[in-house]
Specification:
Blueprint: E1 8-13, H1 15-38, E2 48-54, H2 58-65, E3 72-79, E4 94-96, E5 106-114, H3 118-128, E6 134-143, E7 155-160, E8 165-166, E9 182-185, H4 187-190
Parallel strand pairs: 2-3, 2-5, 5-6, 6-7
Antiparallel strand pairs: 1-9, 3-4, 8-9
The protein binds 1-O-pyrophosphono-5-O-phosphono-alpha-D-ribofuranose (PRP), manganese (II) ion and magnesium ion.
Residues 53, 56-57 line the site of manganese (II) ion (MN).
Cofactor: Mg(2+)
Main location: cytoplasm
Domain Phosphoribosyltransferase: 14-172
């Protein structure tokens, strides 16, 4: 492949559609958190903490927080990226933890895509054990994966087909994250690899 638009079979969500949807999500979050985000957390920090999961969600999170009109802190986690074959194992390892305290704070986890749901299921379990005031998920995409773990998402950008999708943060072998749109990768790019 050329790692560019030629490798894309079909564009699912173009730049404008993503922009519009992320703006709506940000407005909704602003409304929902308006009251609880006003009071301060510990040490004068914002009460609202937006956590994203490296690396795929970094682009979505960057755009989303700019549509949330409230004081907030940004933090990042990195988890072990398992290969396709290990995806169903449910074994997720924390490579980098958030540096902020979350006890008593309102945590919003920003993810790019919910596929098997195992990444989020595990993260929510870990973060919940630290006693946040609340915890919710904003995912840009939720795949129609019939074997998806049961994960409650307060904010879902788009439902999408169970295809190999890339762009706007989503990768194949670390390529395509910088495409400004989300599209289906041509099967010949990943078949036989
Ligand atoms: C991808 C994606 C989600 C996760 C979703 O991350 O960004 O974090 O998989 O899959 P799941 O619902 O089946 O757990 P990946 O592990 O590929 O790492 P990356 O974000 O660095 O691409
Ligand atoms: Mn990811
Ligand atoms: Mg990936």
């Amino acid at each position: 492949g050329c790692y560019c638009e030629e490798d894309i079979e079909k564009i699912l969500f173009d730049r404008e559609a993503i922009e519009r949807r992320v703006r709506e999500m940000g407005r909704q979050i602003t409304e929902d958190y308006r009251e609880c985000a006003q009071c301060q957390g510990g040490e004068g920090k914002p009460r609202l903490l937006v956590v994203s999961v490296l690396r795929g969600a970094a682009i979505f999170m960057g755009d989303l927080v700019r549509e949330i009109n409230l004081p907030l802190e940004m933090d990042y986690m990195a988890v072990s990226s398992y290969g396709a074959s290990a995806k169903s194992s449910g074994v997720v390892r924390i490579l980098k933890d958030i540096s902020s305290q979350i006890e008593g704070r309102h945590v919003l986890v920003a993810e790019d895509v919910l596929d098997s749901g195992l990444t989020l299921k595990y993260l929510l379990h870990v973060l919940e054990s630290r006693n946040p005031a609340s915890i919710q998920v904003a995912t840009l995409l939720r795949k129609a994966n019939p074997r998806q773990a049961d994960v409650e998402c307060a904010y879902v950008g788009f439902e999408c087909p169970d295809d190999f999708i890339v762009g706007y943060g989503l990768d194949y072998a670390e390529h395509y994250r910088n495409l400004p749109y989300i599209g289906i990768l041509k099967p010949e790019i990943y078949q036989g690899k």
